[in-house]
Queue: 3 jobs
Job 1
Amino acid sequence: MPESSRRTKGKIRWSKLYTFTCLRPSTADFVHQEHLGQPGFSRVVLCNETQLHKTKPHKYPSNYVSTTKYNVVTFLPQSLFEQFRRVANLYFLLAAVLSVTSLAPFSPISLVAPLVFVIGISMLKEAVEDWHRFLQDLNVNSRTVKARVGNGRFADKKWRELSVGDVIKVHKNEYFPSDLLFLSSSYEDGICYVETMNLDGETNLKVKRCLEATLGMNEDEELSKFKGTVRCEDPNPNLYTFVGNLEFENESYALCPAQVLLRDSKLRNTDYIYGVVVFSGPDTKAVQNSTRSPSKRSRIEKKMDRVIYLLFSFLFLISLVTAIASAFFLKYEMLEWSYLRLQDDDNPLFNPSKPKVSGLLHFARALILYGYLIPISLYVSIEVVKVLQTMLINKDIEMYDEVTCKSVRARTSNLNEELGQVEIILSDKTGTLTRNEMEFRKCSIAGISYGGDMKEVDLAASRRMNTCAETCRSSIDESNTSQSFEFSELSEADIMVTEKAIPGGREDGENLSTENPEISTVGKESVIKGFNFRDDRLMNNRWIHRSNLYDVIMFFRVMALCHTGIPVEANQTDKLKYEAESPEEVAFLVASQEFAFQFFRRTQSVMVLKELDPSSGKVVEREYKILHLLEFSSSRKRMSVIVRNKGGQIFLFCKGADSIIFDRLAENGKSYQDSTALHLSNYAEDGFRTLAFAYRIIESAEYEHWNSIFSQAKTTIGPERDELLDKASEMIEKDLILLGAAAVEDKLQKGVPECIDKLAQAGLKIWLLTGDKKETAVNIGFSCSLLQQDMKQFHLCLSKEAETKIQVKAMKEDLLYQIESSYQVMCEECNKDSPFAMVVDGKALEVALTDGVKNQFLQLAVNCAFVICCRVSPKQKALITRLVKEYTGKTTLAIGDGANDVGMIQEAHIGIGISGMEGMQ
């Protein structure tokens, strides 16, 4: 059977295709096309004509990628240069040179041999490390991929043998060997799913799409005859831009990043794709971004340098004293010692007529003679110890993760001893302190809160209660122990939690009793990954008996349709697994599946749900045509999907931050706003992440009018495009009807509270840098023992955005007043035993890092045991780390697991990267 017949079927209208990125204009009237052929946009790729790329002017590098520091030619001179950058080695080189002269008081071997040994050991270490890098390069460059060979067929070809212009075929779960222009895929609608974890640290899948002109080419024979010319930008490190066009069959088609597959990204959930190599080897964007890590030197090394300088100064001093004394004795005393017969000796070292020359020569001889005052083995001894330490760290069984089958890897041996000098730790939250494995925990539907279970905050509180109880119990007289309560035997499984009294949180007539489903035992583990919900009112399809059934159905439908996820078949079960742009979306999809709204299939134009029909009690398939997907962004703080059902009704389903959704509600859509807002507040206090859900029904005439405006905005090319799209989205995302909200929990990593307790007892100060909102961050702080109930907390908050210079000035003054007031309180209570903590929200942090405020902010922050910074961007993480490092002068350690943590990891004295759910940058 030909491969084309096995392609994933999915009808599609290209005029209605709105994927997760930009929309392609139909021709090459792209605003940036005018740049092609000019400096910076001069690359020309001739598809399937690689022989033309072997000579100028279109000769480009091979696809071989090297990460080694040296090669056979450069190793000796370059490694020698690196060794003699050390002051001690340079001194002994000078001493060795002098030792071969007549000035040497002993054999040259005694100086030359140790120097050669020390330099040789260091160079051998460099060679071994570079050899390992070479073997790793060899392994990568020797990977194979299907590529067109000379006779027009596709066969295995090593990565290093690929050239610009080669047409290749990449199969599912394979990495792209070069930067490719996407030509076609196993999907009939010309899409593919790509994982870019190695590039940007994001684990979510991204959708790429090919040009309509190449969509139909899906056979090896067709692609082997493909002739086209790509004119595009020159190599650059920007991962998110691409400017170019494809000239094919006398037509020119504009290209955008959606048609480019980058090296080191991975093909997922797509059987195969065809692509043509555009950038190879060192020209690929991945390699262009692979800059060297900053060179970090430990305090021991820096102190060792200072000691060497001190010893050299002392050596210089005693040699100088020796030389002066020698010249003095030679001129005034040794002439009288006739038995020396100095007048008959022409030795310049003892020439009475030239005492100054003799003094200089004695000075040089003294430098050699006393040279062992500087230990020649100092550097090599320390390096050998560091290498042994690194080997022990890499083989430490206690730091092996059985889940990922990965062990610790010390990327450098220069910072081992620095771990014992750390005084300040700066940590990411998501994926570092928490697992970044979201669980659906609670929801509010039509003003009624559902779900109850012991959460991480409650578990932390119970642990603290047990600790306090144990302390109290130990103080009771032993004679009364028979009457005392054994608090230490209180386990998490014995603690019960009940729902908080929430006005409007229950339907009339519902009473809390011992049979209430919201009372849950703590010891239960979540049977289903991503779903830890306990409430018999909704579970096991009991939701069909709810009085507000329509709202319940619409709520579950929003969860099942408003997302960017795709289903993945599970093994030996009717349950599906999902992959989406965020763990929250996966949790919502798993939850909707448990509530009998299974997201079953997706194409570019259709989503299919398996829904439980309350009237018949049977599961039915319902198809929803995707009309538009309005993406989530940090500025919009919401996403929407517009769909049409079989009956022709058009729905807009929306989810987002509660403040954004509430502002867009219709007057008749606010029925549940007050109760939902209260539930959301309680969920946030519990440390949960929350989103609000809403919908609206759109009339056909209104949709057609809006669609023309949106389509025009989408096909606009230029800097105003995003603004026009946002304005168009605002036009349709209004008059919403609130359905409710959902809460997901990010579970703590194992042992986090105990670890933080021990670090705090050791006197280390901890900064938590998170992108979460303040309420969530504070409650995570309590759950992981960063914050305690008896701890004095300073909250720096600003309520409004600054739009004018006057408002900016007022905000600075407001924040400075808060800082000064907090500092006064700190000074007054500094003698108390309880530590201080500080919480800074996102708006206050932006102002705090500006000139005129940051010094006062840091003065307060560094005196707190714990600092929590909310709504922090990656750039702010790096800036905070740099400021803390420079302001305190203390050793800092940064730890994180995502690409957004790379900046602060590089800024800190010690950086620790975790292979986590956010990626492995």
Job 2
Amino acid sequence: MKSLKNNHKIIIHPLISSLQKLALYENKSKFYIVASNNMETKFQVLYIDRMESHDLKVTCDGIEYSRNEIKNKLDMIDVGNRGRSGGSSRVIGAFGIVGFVRFLEGYYLILVTKRRRVAKIGLHSIYKIEDTAMIYIPNESVRIPHPDEPRCLKMFQSIDLSSNFYFSYSYDITHTLQVNLAIPENIESITTKDIQIKEPSTNQIGPVEVANEDFGSVVNKKGINEGRTNNLQEDKNIYFQNTSFTNGTKFVERVSHYAVRSEPNERFVWNSYLLSKVKKTIHPDWILNVMHGFISQSNVSVFGRSIYLTLIARRSNKYAGTRFLKRGANFEGDVANEVETEQLVEDMGVSSIESPKFSSFVQMRGSIPGHWSQNVTKMVPKPAISFDLSDPYCQAAGAHFNNLLLRYGSPIIVLNLVKKREKKKHESILSEEYSGAIKYLNQFLPPEHQIYYISFDMARMNKGKEANVMGRLAAIARAAISKTGLYCSHDAYKNQQPSTILGKNGCPGRIQTGIIRVNCVDCLDRTNTAQFALGKCALGYQLCAMGLLERPNLDFDSDCVRLLEVLYEDHGDTLALQYGGSQLVHRIKTYRKTAPWTSQGNDIMQTLSRYYSNTFSDAEKQHAMNLFLGLFVPTEHSAPIWEQVTDYYLHQSLTKGIVIQRKYPLTQWWDPEVMNCLPYAYTYKHKQCKSYIPINYHDIECVDVYNDFYKPHEFSVLKESLAEKISHSVRDFMPNCVTDYSPFTVRVRPGRRREEATKGGNKNPSLTGLSSTSSTTSSGSSGSESDEEDELDVQITDSHHTSPARDLPTPSLVTFESLFPSMRQIYGVEIKNPSRPDTLSYKRFVQLGYISNQMNVQPKVINICNLMIPSVVTSDSSLKVAVPKVSPTSIDIYKNYVTKSNGIVNVDDEKYKQYLNCELGLFRPIGWE
């Protein structure tokens, strides 16, 4: 939503794909894919010809069928083909089409057969692919076999689509939230025209049939072409909603609602090649854009008010590959291991669908832009870094930063974590080349848009006993985020402190301009820790924007930050598996000095696991990725991909004969249209959409996200809802027996971990003993380093300071005690048998109760409670006490005591005489001389 001039407000609603349930039917000549909406009231059919051995023929009649009509059509198809082809049969059910692919024989159809909801943004569901089916299309009668087909198929299927591939029917997960909520330029441009406002009458309501217009450019059953309305002057159903009078002048606020289908960011669409053959021939509702990366969501409960924290990592399909085979950048500026990470915060306490409260912060990681590589042919733990091509004009780096300015705006802040000084140069040559390239490019940029460069040697600083790596990263994060700001969908609160309001004015809300780019050599271990520090700092400002905190300060020992730490560790593990073949070793706790010493042995084993993966299996993974992305297309007259010596020519445009024609000198490495939009991103200011429809109601089916999310027509089990599946700050992180339920309170005792409290979920690899490794070039210490203290060159000034990070150590290996903790560990007490004195005291107390109340005690109870009563009193009560009997000896002792008190002492003269004569035997008699 965005306010424009002349009091004209535009509200956009994403178009929801109406085809979410699929059924595949087959006969000998065709495949029929019958798709329906969630309620199974509207159906469409896709026809795939099976009589073509090599070509793909997919047709869609564009007719929308009812339930009875589709049943009659399927019966008609079955009866019509029963004689010659045995009729039609249902093959499989699915939730979407991933795409079509061909190797050396015919085409294959790839379907999503299992899905799992992993997150929600607003009322838009995000699904993870859990399983797929790959079906060969041509009939066996026309199939022409090829000997290399099985190997190509096996290589393609090694890309596990059930591993971190995501999609959504209504939300564009290839764009950031800031871009998704921006008004498309082609809608904004038509609002400047004169619009004839029509007064609403009491008996005229806009047509509900407008919901069917999302099938634009399709012929309906009557053969009428339902094109989209692209001119507001043709729309007679735009009404104003708010009217007021000021000084006798009528004030009208015009509100327009549009259903919009966005243009995806092809950089993050991993099935773009698989859909390339049919994207222009079938309706967009059939198209399912699949993203590769990581998505996870958690619930931070603030006294019962749910705040959803979501982490989305989008892996780029440009220059994609494995660790040692993809380093640096290509000529187009696409870098290896490029991942865009977005941290979303959503206030679930807001019930308005039109005015939700969102906040997002975007950062990225990527290899150092340049033509460098590492030779893995030699069996060495750290392959030497070499530069393959000389780039005196820094064209690769210039193309890369031009693309960042295009997508994110300015300023670009580079946080380089590569070592700077070594006895034997290894990583440091990358730092020298990187800093030199940025200095060269900054010569030609205006001062206000220049690239900030920060160099921080985390590995060297972490070697010191008193090192405070996280404190230094927190200072860098606060200074950097104050420059870029963050996105907020609503205006600041009246009493919000000005120092916590970041970003440019977005009208309404705030806009993030620029990006923080983090890198080390592999962009894995150190990079993930630095991104966590940035995310922690940004989360403080995001919570301030939500009105939950007064100051953006979060302690490491709070439930909220522990939850965020788990999210970023899972984030780092997943990205490290995708690029490096194994998970993280140098985790956040390693740089906080809280990792247990027992984890070092596990680190060594996992480092060897990564080395084995990089040496022996990375080549096969790279071939599979090139085949999946369509970079290599098998043909009958070319050598197969496994016989290719290198894939360098597949990722470089110059080797393909594609020469980029530049209109400007090399010193102008940016595009003029990009520079004109700064500090805002070009993709934000000039956002385009595929199509749009003016609508009058936002509860029609094509934009009704409430109905799409909650599915009121289906029976729902609350235990299986998304809110019960995601991690929760109270359920999974807050310690037991506490009285302060705030997730921002510092906890003395470590709280429950999500891995211990949740069963069956994806657990942190450091706690499960799974493969968990780190890059050898990203190790924390090296014998080749000098002992000089590292210097931090921060070119961003900021007056804020942070305290050192503190945390309690927790074990990272699975033990019997960690899986089954004792009662003392959980509740602080322990059940044990009482001591004998305590048991006797309790029995005496019970017996006195029985006696005082004159209760009838069963004989067996008396036998059990046979107490020793040290008194002669047999039965006493509060009304009567029996006179005790005293023995004569006791009476004599008492009489002697009384006489002594009167000064009368009875002396035993006989005993005294014996004493004088030494007759008592106490001393030996001594004779007198």
Job 3
Amino acid sequence: MTERKGTAKVDFLKKIEKEIQQKWKDEGAFEVNASDAASQKSNGKYFATFPYPYMNGRLHLGHTFSLSKCEFAVGFQKLKGKACLFPFGLHCTGMPIKACADKLKREMELYGCPPEFPDEEEEEEEDSKEEEVVIKDKAKGKKSKAAAKTGSSKYQWGIMKSLGLSDEEIVKFSEAEHWLDYFPPLAIQDLKSMGLKIDWRRSFVTTDVNPYYDSFVRWQFLTLRERNKIKFGKRYTIYSPKDGQPCMDHDRQTGEGVGPQEYTLIKMKVVEPYPVKLSGLKGKNIFLVAATLRPETMFGQTNCWVRPDMKYIGFETLNGDIFICTQRAARNMSYQGFTKINGVVPVVKELMGEDILGAPLSAPLTSYKVIYTLPMLTIKEDKGTGVVTSVPSDSPDDIAALRDLKKKQPFRAKYGIKDDMVLPFEPVPVIEIPGYGQLSAPMICDELKIQSQNDREKLVEAKERLYLKGFYEGIMLVAEFKGQKIQDVKKIIQKKMVDNGEAMIYMEPEKQVMSRSADECVVALCDQWYLDYGEETWKKQTHECLKNLETFCEETRRNFEATLDWLQEHACSRTYGLGTRLPWDEQWLIESLSDSTIYMAFYTVAHLLQGGNLRGQGESPMRIRANQMSKEVWDYIFFKTAPFPATKIPKAVLDKLKQEFEFWYPVDLRASGKDLVPNHLSYYLYNHVAMWPNQREKWPVSVRANGHLLLNSEKMSKSTGNFLTLSEAVQKFSADGMRLALADAGDTVEDANFMETMADAGILRLYTWVEWVKEMLANWDSLRSGPADTFNDRVFFSEINAGIMKTEQNYEKMMFKEALKTGFFEFQAAKDKYRELAIEGMHRDLVLQFIESQTLLLAPVCPHMCEHVWALLGKTDSIMKASWPVPGPVDEILIRSSQYLTEAAHDLRLRLKNYMAPAKGKKSNKEVPQKPSHCTIYVAKNYPPWQHITLSVLRRHYQTSGGHLPDNKNNLQ
């Protein structure tokens, strides 16, 4: 975007914002206690929460967009007279912080302090681009935030440098605890700078550094275990066969943060005639097994790929079947229950890929009775099984390779591939993707002019374009899944194939993991504690919770339903990282998706326990020690019928905590990105049902999921520079300028778009509005008084009231972009029209009503400027104590009359312009016409006969059908 000419206007806004934020702090504007709220007889309560962000970096604009939904909703509900609570915690549980700290330690051990790293060219380079686009199943795949947020630097030291830290400061981060000291205060500082309505007394950090939160999580898990929600059994984990134990991050030479990746293992049965090299295995069930991330596409299989020069093996499985794949994949499978002896691969045949080319196969789901094994030259041995199933309708790689074979007869001849193994097989429509049709892969390959399977860069681009769009927007075209979204049926199709014996679940590390003993790790089934989300009674009750949950969007509800249908077990324990230890088995830590499901209940009492001390290590306002918070004490606070415990804590004190919980619960709004629906948000529902099974009034009320945030119509990315932190955005656009652009970015679950041009325009709009208010107040005596009864007065009065009503409806539906449109853009336009048309002058009463209404309508989004204007109006109380404006009557006919006059005047101007300036290119000897001095407008008193008859028929149908217009077929009758 173009450089700004100056910063005077944004500096003006930021100066006001700092003054207003200090005013709110001094007044404790957002600190609210249950006892006070109850005594003030408010119009109910409103409790909003946002998933606490992870503390290994600064908050960015994506975080800010999601939490703005809570912020705007709280601002509106506050104006509606409700007691509002918006608390904010800071998450430190899990592996990422510990892994990063330990990585810094290793780098200093290996390379000195400050480290002197080897030249890049001396190191083994990783592929710069991942050729496989993965749609992460965030509930199963355990790729940690450390892996997701480390940026492009190879070394952790470099990543810390990129944050602007000095060598001396970086050394401190080699201790995990320092991260908890450093980033949480910065997060609070950044959040305060945007003017959030947060009760900071209730803020805290997680993990056992906070004894109160640690006690709370232990209570939760003791309760879940009592209620038989937690089991012990086999779960997938990264494992070192050489060491004979799970390989956690601190045990790894490479691959920190890498977790298991789930695949669907497709079983393609070899049918007669067998290839020569397999003829000795007649009588056995032989399968080529392909690992896919896209089971929903199996309806479109046309062939199977192997690499001619790659080594394969056939090995015997637990039930006597023979699986053909690479040795590496078989090694992984042997630790996942595929073979009779754990870790032993019973090889029955060693093969080259060329030995099985042309083998006929029977593949599940496809409409082709027999497909064939064909050569693909780009298959990698370090990923998957070395066997690839081909779906050319939806895979750019597959259509490119298939076209190569079809076009190049010598290529087929080289590998002994007959024409009837290739030429009859055409792509099968399986999925429709908006913009790419029913055969997306052929279309995008044509669009990018991909000539062969060797056009690797173009193929990577093609996959990136298709796969994410396909996952979120693709619609199935086949079988009983026709018309359903991919994200809703992916797991269901996988389960169906597994249940039918056509596929199996297979895991391998997301990327190579090497242990400190130089052993390449596998994924193994190891004993772990897990939450049994598949248990039928629990699942059924969670469905009941979902049935009454407000999701604001049907797509969000469908995503919840699909998740609850397939969700089974979730491992809740780890041996490495930060967090709370399992109370009954302290070798295990509770992982980060499991200690974050009901902490909203902790918010209700945190201020009384911790008093705003993030670590809970100061003096408790209620003089309660953390070691006094026994399970029975927590039960008494959170469970309505629990008896008073044996404790030295006075009953009056515990009753105060109990009162806070009873007043604020349930959570009225949980706002989050849509990517958390399949994991955190579903676990949130499950755990509330488990903890309060007989108190449905404590179950969540609503969940508002939003799409990802684009920046200037492009994906946010540090590597491309298209990235903004929260602090950068506030500095660049002011808090209210940023907030206005966030509200305008989007309301749906589709991707939203933060436009810097919109933020800049917002700065100008806000500045102009404040200046206009000051001008009106300065010239108050010159404004018209007396009766406000002119045509334009009455129109403006109705438009103000209509704007209030529409904006209230939009805020109620959490449609903030629409609320901004009706409550600011259109509202301002109505004022501008009134100012322009009211030749007799604007009426002071209407100007005052407009300013007050505008201030209140915009306050949830831009509270600083609205607080400032509120003070300019002479209001002694903060706008945070004001009420939503009560609209007067709306005369729709009057508004439509005004619109008609405006449109008629516009039409006359256009006619006059065209009359005075004839169209170019027409030769004419006529003189330029004289400008008309007046115009005659003819107004029909009655509709033409044909319109009168039509309206009469429609009116009759409308009245007899209960207020519904008939369809065209009935109209014709």
